[in-house]
């Protein structure tokens, strides 16, 4: 009897019980996942005794065993086992790691990855030895729940609602985790308002803080903030690339043109490949950036510990690439240690620039296949959106750097060497547009530079990037429209291409929406923050700066964030959230209930200006 015939006999024998067994496994898997996640949260979020530690780890080990058994049962019940391995290669690899690490832990009382990291000199990770196995478990839980969730629902969900819901869920989850006792150094836990402020700031990749991240949070709390930044940034840039998922949730073809505002047309119809590129590309860039940062701070980090220097590198790499602006240094980048790390500033600037350029533009401009294609066919060029994003970004960086050099040469950069002034200027202007890192105290910056910073923050970065603001493409279209009007042209032309009226209308809608949101925020703060305005060294400019920074998800501040009233903090939370999701939401809202646009009323002239 051949192997195929034997397999057919096995399939026939398993057929009758397959549906019942797999259904039972799905139900049990849900409860096991809940128990595993609850156990990990309790173990790391609350102080536990040695006896409780042992009991909790037994539950985690039982969860390992279940997921390994679950995988093998699915393998056995699949009628084509080899195809199953190919389809679930990542899950299989994960299960193999789980088996190896579990065997290593029980036989040699060590975890291989943790042991390898310790041998490299990262001793501070020793107390988190078991965390590596639990991270494996969380990934397994995520894969399993994700597969159960990807089913076509009985009702349709509008894409803008999906986008909002995902951010709300991440923010609330982050708030809950940051309020756990083990997340903060002080006794007790973080209060709800400060926790949701921090979670919103991290998820919306803003960087505004009400407490010192380095002094208030433990390693665990800082780790949660780092993961919120990663999830928030990834959620932003992956949203437009997820149309294959949205199709199951009711996304019709009429919505594709709206998503094209965030992902180029060609990308929309190859979303699955682009999503993989986004995830893998972001991880690779962050790892390369972390390695460079580690090499620069190794040996000079304040604690003198390689483990702390490594975590600093990972944290700041993720923070920079996702344009978040969080720092775990005392007083951030303008502290005594951070302000003179000029090579670190240079690396962070490069990562902020790439993150703010957007994956679509980055792949289109610098992707290997695109470069090879243009080398073989010189007449081909990058997409119009990529060119506009790149040229607008470079022009804004050059102009803002020159302004910073002019106004801050003998002010905040007094005593710096020439080369240090240039690096500081570049770092500051690249960061102040999107990220929020600051190596100078913006409370001491000259008023002309404050005004210029407001302008550059409001513009922000490119579409399909982790940056906020109205986006460089919106600004470019508005500027080109004004230029065409002045020159008496009927069409908006750039790079031998014509920009459609639809894009112009969307650009104006985005601009007006942003201006309105900022003005409302400023108006509310002018009412609620009388105590700040009463201080001798504060003015109305501080409130304007705070609102624009929050709405543009930049994170720059003149130092008033922690002094805001309860109403003021709530206003800034709303500004960060609306600034993060507002542009996409308003674009969908404008097209949501329109049945037809195939008509035109008679034109009539009126006075303008």
Secondary-structure blueprint:
Blueprint (H helix, E strand, L loop, with lengths): L2 H43 L4 H28 L3 H7 L1 H20 L3 H8 L11 H19 L9 H20 L13 H12 L9 H4 L2 H21 L3 H4 L9 H4 L5 H4 L2 H27 L8 H16 L20 H16 L1 H8 L1 H9 L7 H25 L9 H17 L12 H13 L12 H15 L5 E3 L2 E3 L1 H28 L1 H4 L6 H12 L14 H27 L17
Antiparallel strand pairs: 1-2
Helix pairs in contact: 1-2, 1-6, 2-4, 2-6, 4-6, 7-8, 7-10, 7-26, 8-10, 8-26, 14-15, 14-16, 15-16, 16-20, 17-19, 19-20, 19-21, 19-22, 20-21, 21-25, 22-23, 23-25, 23-26, 25-26
Structure description:
With 609 residues, the protein is mostly helical. Among the domains are: 1-151, no CATH class; 326-591, no CATH class. It is 67% helix and 1% strand. The protein has 26 helices and 2 strands. The protein has helices spanning 3-45, 50-77, 81-87, 89-108, 112-119, 131-149, 159-178, 192-203, 213-216, 219-239, 243-246, 256-259, 265-268, 271-297, 306-321, 342-357, 359-366, 368-376, 384-408, 418-434, 447-459, 472-486, 501-528, 530-533, 540-551, 566-592, and strands spanning 492-494, 497-499. The chain has a two-stranded antiparallel ribbon. α2 crosses α6 (131-149) and α8 (192-203) packs across α26. The chain is globular, with a radius of gyration of 26 Å. Mean pLDDT is 80; it is low at 125-129 and 242-271.
Average pLDDT figure: 80
Task: Report the total helices.
Answer: 26
How many beta-strand elements? Answer: 2
Lateral strand order in the biggest sheet? 1-2
